[in-house]
Specification:
Layout lengths: L30 H16 L3 H13 L10 H13 L3 H14 L4 H24 L5 H23 L6 H36 L3 H21 L5 H30 L15 H34 L3 H19 L4 E2 H23 L16 H11 L13 H6 L3 H17 L16 E2 L5 H26 L3 H21 L7 H22 L6 H27 L4 H25 L3 H22 L1 H35 L6 H22 L13
Parallel strand pairs: 1-2
Amino acid sequence: MKRDGSHSGRVGMLLIAGTILLSWLTAAVAQSDHKAALAEGGRLFDEGKYADAASAYEADRQDDKQTDEPIPAVLRYNAGVSYLRDGKWDEAIERFEDASVRAQEPLRDAAIYNLAYARFEKGHQLAEGAAEQDGDDAKLKTLAEAAANYRGAIDFFRQLRPRDEQVTHNIGVAKTALRVVLDRIAQIEEQRRKQADEDALKAPAKLLFELMGNERLHRVLSRALREVPERSARIAARRLQRSQARLRGRTDMLARYLAEFEAQAAATAPATSQPGAADEQQVERYRAAGERLRQTIEAQHGAEAALDELDFASAGDSQTASIRGMRDALQLLPLELGMVLNDALAVTGENLARSEEKAGVKPQPRSDQAPTSQPASDVRRFLDVLGDKVLGKLGSMLTPADVAGAAPLAEAQEDVVWATRLLAAAEISVPDSPQQGTTDEVGSPGMDAETIEQIHALAETAAQAAQNAHTQLADGHVAASLDDQRATLEALEKIAELLPKPPKSPAERLRQLIERERVVRQAIDGLAEMDDGQDEALAMLADSQNEDAAEAADMAGQLSNSQDENHQAAAGKTREGAQSASTSSEALGQQRLEAARRNTDQAIERLTEALALLSGQQQNDQQQQQDQKQNQQKDSSQQDQKDEQQDQSDQGYRLTPRQARLRMDEMDQKRREEEKAILQAPSSVTVSKDW
């Protein structure tokens, strides 16, 4: 340790000797005790016993039970330096944070620098460790923590004034490291999205309903953004444009899948009663649906172009055209009765609630539904906005009321008319018939003829009432449409009562619950961007978390009644998830966002663990698949070695796949080592006599 050097500029690790800083001590601290701690800590530090040195610096306060005085900032700082040298980043960060708040210049300046350095090193350690973890969820969580530490490093480096060349350099290095981590996160999420999309293609109609729901949300936002000031509107339009482009990409994927659908792929689609002829007919309808989606994609292009010009009215019109195209394509696909009915119920309920609000009429809750201050659909829609990584920024420009009030009533009623007409015209299967069919056939569990007749009569009633309501809404007579909207909803609910209700599996319920919790987690981050309506959004999120906690608790009770060991273990994890969701709700009610984030993360983690326990058999199957894959990779590696030898003999300049993988790994490792090396840190410990 250099004890007589002068200090110029900032140095990364500064160990302060006791004889230099005695004048900083307050009367409450005995100089002899302070000197002793500094001397003992310095001796141990010189011997390379960094953990012991850190303890020595803080020993006088740890052993003194008679005082509430905090450990002096200089001792906390030196303990932080010791932990930094020992590679204990969390302990070092804690000490430097304390010293940076309580110390005076220049010690405060050095503490901030070292705090930034420690945050960078912790981020680097986490980023390296993520590569060794199994499972995307674990990797994403670790990488997100690494990104937070890199951001913290950047923020603390930026606090230093004046900002010299070394600090500027380190900010650049930290920014580069942050971009690398964010790219890795984006890559994992993109892979998950692609996998999810591939899985979704197994049920094209279900995917198309999901895409139509996304487009409806886009249309509502386009209508709402017409009243936003131009500067904010430009930022919002960019975000909405990105989301619209993402939707167009997914629509294009589905269109290509349908257009290229071949008879031998029909096994992945719903079966029909006449395999030979029906398969050909089904292929033809799939292709026709794909062609219809091509026209839908053109409308989506038009929406993007309108958003680029801040023409939100035209964007909404193009989005309406897109929705109509999706409806046309859906009519060409095999549909399940429940799928169509659920969409009709959701849109009818939303439209009725908004119409009652606009007409100034008190809502008439059903017997099984408690009255609420705002329709549940509007709550969920706003949470969908906040919970979307692209659209979340719009939460700072809109309030829940803005989003709810912008929904186009007449346009939305078109969806109700379409769904009810489809139900009325459907050829519902009978017990011995296949459950799904083509254009005019809507599949459902087998029912007797009398029930089918009742469903058709109710569907006709709903279709006629829905059309009447649409006519009234199109003419601007909102209040006059309410009776017909209520009649539509009542008929649809009666149809729902007549349908068999197969229970969801615990695993399916858990997956849906986890997805809702992820939306809430993202929405909590979106709250920080909100200027108006934050209290209302907090209340929405708190209510949503209460509902999720109640459902998780109910699931835990059901699972605990099972004799299966995996179900019993999953019940405990689900119960813990319910408790975390409930605690998150309480934190949201008290506007403690950090606690809400932490508890929501815990809820997701516990529920994911419960799902893994329920999927024990699936995990065994996955392990077998992994073993097979490893064997295939081993065989492939041996073949690659043979190929490599052959290539070296006659085509030495070419790389085999194995060589390419090894070369990429080497380059990646070299990049990480260079990145760590160029972050400027001290080569020695320096003490300034000026201090």
